[in-house]
Design brief:
Probable transcriptional factor. Binds to the promoter of the SQUAMOSA gene. It is found in: Nucleus. This protein has 165 residues and is α+β, with helices and mostly antiparallel strands. The protein is built from four helices and seven strands, in the order αββααβββαββ. 10% of the residues are buried.
């Protein structure tokens, strides 16, 4: 029996819908992708729909992002959405719904992800202005010589030979 027929037999017997399954069958290691259905009756081929309660939006013609995260365009931008009986908002950073307490005011990204984003942004700007970056801390105005570099060559007069700004 070859590897292809072993895989087909194994796939025909196994219809459970979870995530990934590592199957070791003697000589071969197969990874099968399995579909996960989280809404509706769990039937194969059920049409994708929004997670928001009482939303009848059909996502079969929606963009891939909205289908993947099971949210319609209306609830994607809504300030308050009821999902699983809780008042929530869709986080654009996490691509999932969070409780309203995890957001600041009307922001669309949760505090946790915004904090990480701001930290990375501050870290990047401090690196570019640090010592040895080759930049002048205060940008010189016209006629200001604070950032001027004088280069004197040996054996030449001590007056200014060459200036780099």
């Amino acid at each position: 029996m070859d590897a292809t027929s072993i895989f087909k037999d194994k796939a025909a017997d196994d219809d459970s819908l979870e995530e990934e399954d590592d199957s070791y069958d003697g000589e071969f290691l197969f990874k099968k992708k399995k579909l996960v259905f989280a809404s509706g009756s769990g039937k194969k081929g059920s049409e994708p729909s929004c997670q928001a309660e009482r939303c009848l939006a059909d996502l079969s013609d929606a963009k891939r992002y909205y289908r993947r995260h099971r949210v319609c365009q209306v609830h994607f931008k809504a300030a308050v959405v009821t999902v699983a009986g809780l008042r929530q908002r869709f986080c654009q950073q996490c691509s999932r719904f969070h409780e309203l307490s995890e957001f600041d005011d009307t922001k669309r990204s949760c505090r946790k992800r915004l904090a990480g984003h701001n930290e990375r942004r501050r870290k990047g700007s401090s690196d570019s202005r640090g010592e040895g970056s080759g930049r002048c801390q205060n940008q010189p105005r016209e006629g200001d010589n604070r950032c001027e570099t004088l280069i004197a060559f040996p054996g030449t007069p001590t007056y200014k030979q060459f200036s780099i700004r």
